[in-house]
Write a structure and sequence with these properties.
39% of the residues lie in helices and 14% in strands. With 190 residues, it is of the alpha/beta class. A 4-stranded parallel sheet has the order 4-5-6-7. A 3-stranded parallel sheet has the order 1-2-3. The chain is globular, with a radius of gyration of 16 Å. It starts with a strand and ends with a helix.
Length: 190
Amino acid sequence: MIDTHAHLQAKDFLEDIDEVIKNAKLAGLTKIIIPAITPNDAPRLEELKSKYGDFLDFSMGIHPHNAGEANDDFFEIIENYCKESKIVAIGEAGLDYYYDFCPKDIQKQVFSRQIQLSKKYDLPIIIHNRQSDEDVLSIIKQNQDGNLCGVLHCFSSDVDMLKKALDLGLFVSFTGNITFKKSELNEVLD
């Protein structure tokens, strides 16, 4: 079993990362994929990969919360990781309109640019979507030429969005949000 989305580079894991990895293996995981939030994560991701080897892989991208930090240097770092085949995906990329950390137009530009890298290097893209269904679908449709694949992680939208995402060749994943008492995802899960 593979955990495809675990932010083990976060400060929360600095003290007990060895225990986390040990417990993951005991639970039957064979691999964990760590999605980057920004290319600034690269040194920590490289360190973790060096220490835990094939048990860990990582992606490289710019989370929508950090899209305002994106610059040509960030994209050059991502592209270098692609060229060196050091990553298994692009992302975490996407749009987040729940928080107001970055203007929508900048998020869209950064997301689109990461989609282009995903297609150029034939890598899946890990898509973050929070209260931005229409724009996420629009950008994916504009870029879907049969060479775009990826996952809408932590899916929390409705059945209509699910069908449209699947029709565009994407996968969806669910996380702990399906267990919340106030979850409205039962119809989607059916």
